[in-house]
Amino acid sequence: MMWIAASIAALMMLAATAAERRLGPTAGGWITALPTAFAVTLAATGVESGWKTTAALAESSAIHVTAQVAFGIVTGLAVIKLGPWIGAVAGVATYVSLSAVVVMVPRGL
Fold first, then answer.
1. Shortest CA distance to 95 belongs to which of 62, 63, 72, 61?
2. Where are the domains of the chain?
3. Which phi-psi region, left, alpha or beta, contains residue 24 (left: φ > 0; alpha: ψ -120 to 50)?
4. Membrane-crossing residues (predicted)?
């Protein structure tokens, strides 16, 4: 299963590099942001540990999407307005705070 993950990672790097050269850095960024690594992780976990474990992993990851999105928004805005150091601290503080709240959400909703 490891060779599949390595192959997909290499293909994504090639695709991102080609897109960046042809269409600019934004296109390369969009390609590298695709969640292909997560899909490979879920498939490997399902094969090795069973699908119940895979479902728990997927649910846990999905719950934290809100914190990840907030991290990106806060970091981006704070970096533009306040600079990179304060932006990084604000983003991390946002992610940690929301993750602490999100953990309290009952599972299976």
1. 72
2. 1-62, 64-109
3. left
4. 28-49, 61-80, 86-105
